[in-house]
Design brief:
GO molecular function, one term: DNA binding
Number of helices: 10
Keywords: DNA-binding, Repressor, Transcription, Transcription regulation
Helix content: 25-40%
Oligomer: single chain
Protein name: Lactose phosphotransferase system repressor
Pfam family, one: DeoRC
Function: Repressor of the lactose catabolism operon. Galactose-6-phosphate is the inducer.
Largest sheet: 7 strands, parallel
Structural class: alpha/beta
Distance between the termini: 23 Å
């Protein structure tokens, strides 16, 4: 087993049972405790686990929200495949919303040059990238900028969304489950995401397989409100079938 595969399995176990133990993991993976400690350090630096005495716990159990920079370093190949698959959901021309997030940020990087699009974003870094493109008309939502996600929130971002109608909203989420729908840790950011979905004719969720089964504080949509879920090939086929049964088309990139 490669180190990355072992680390993903450690993360899966931590989220499933709430805690992992160094000694137990070393025995189960037939590696040294030093190797497991290095794995936990990698996962902690990625912002998905928090080290505790003798092991680690998932950050969502502590109410922590990984910063955007940390999330951007995790599942990079999967996020790039998801973004490439999302290009098929773009209109030939018209208007789109791109939500703040590490996977949606990959889509921003590869928007085709042959599409005349109006793009609404709530992320200053994404707006900066898009503004250099001559084929795009970029609208930046105002408001308070959250330090962890670099997303604009609150009334100055909400009011414009109530006045627009776009073809497609490309959404990010921290967690997605059948029971809780699409969730995120921050209520202010959840309100913006909800308004984005309401402003769009179609909504597309971009989420790697680690997001499924997780639930955070604030729900912003049910699965039935999402038209397409684009994830990666690492998603469990049973989970993918359950997601599709709840309403959206599921694309495994």
């Amino acid at each position: 087993m490669y180190a990355e595969e072992r680390q993903q399995e450690i993360l899966r176990r931590a989220r499933a049972i709430g805690r992992v133990d160094v000694v137990t993991l070393a025995a189960e993976f037939s590696v040294t405790t030093e190797t497991i400690r290095r794995d936990l350090t990698v996962l902690e630096r990625a912002g998905v686990l928090r080290r505790v005495h003798g092991g680690a716990i998932p950050v969502e159990r502590l109410g922590f929200e990984p910063a955007l920079a940390a999330r951007d370093e995790v599942m990079t190949a999967e996020k790039e495949r998801i973004a490439k698959a999302a290009v098929a959901e773009l209109p030939e021309d018209g208007s789109i919303i791109i939500d703040a997030g590490s996977t949606t940020g990959r889509l921003v990087q590869i928007l085709p040059a042959d599409r005349e699009l109006t793009v609404i974003v709530n992320s200053p870094p994404l707006a900066t990238v898009l503004a250099t493109r001559s084929n795009l008309s970029v609208i930046m939502l105002g408001g308070r900028v959250r330090g962890r996600t670099l997303a604009t929130v609150d009334d100055w971002a909400l009011r414009p969304l109530a006045q627009v109608n776009v073809d497609v909203a490309f959404m990010a989420a921290n967690g997605c489950s059948l029971r809780h729908g699409l969730t995120t840790p921050d209520p202010a950011e959840a309100a913006i995401k909800r308004a984005m979905i309401e402003a769009a004719n179609r909504s597309v969720l971009l989420a790697d397989h680690t997001k499924f089964g997780d639930a955070y504080l604030s729900r912003f949509a049910s699965l039935s409100e999402i038209d397409v879920v684009i994830t990666d090939s690492g998603v469990d086929p049973v989970v993918a079938a359950e997601l599709a049964g709840a309403g959206p088309e599921v694309v495994r990139a």
